[in-house]
Known about the structure:
Layout: H1 2-10, H2 17-21, H3 30-39, H4 44-54, E1 65-75, E2 86-89, E3 100-111, E4 121-128, H5 134-149, E5 153-157, H6 164-172, E6 176-178
Parallel strand pairs: 1-5, 5-6
Antiparallel strand pairs: 1-3, 2-3, 3-4
Amino acid sequence: MFSLCDALLCETAAQSVPELSQSPVFERRWSSLYQALENGKINEHQLRQAWIEALPSGYPEDEPVWISVDSSSMARPEAKTSPDRGIIHDANLPRACKPISVGWQFSTIMLLPEEPSSWVGILDQQRIATSQTAIEVAITQLCALVPLLKRPVFILADRWYATTEFLQACHELSCQVWS
């Protein structure tokens, strides 16, 4: 997987997997590329723990952290073979078009900076399956993240997160919510 990532970063002209395997930084045989893609696994718990340790490290430990919860859509109307696409809101369509499309939704939990900035640290991002709601996924993400932060947490969320289910979950996690 690391060799594949190196080749992806170094070979900007490669247009296929076999071309990537010919990169000097890819030190294995081309067939191992497919094995890496098939067998490669990311330990989500370890990755989440690493982000939690790295991102808020500049914050004083007794100070609360502000995190935001948001969902966003990615239109993929032409990707007919992509799994689990659903109807999504797509506000950036040309005028006079219906603001809906087909694609995926993602739920993102971000660490907000102390000073106003365009930079945020993404603590977790999950795809929202068509069988789930953004609120269900956000609650699952918060249940995994908040205990790892080990400090007071303020949550900033859009108004549609102001549901009984979401507010109850945040209360149980001892988080304050601003929507």
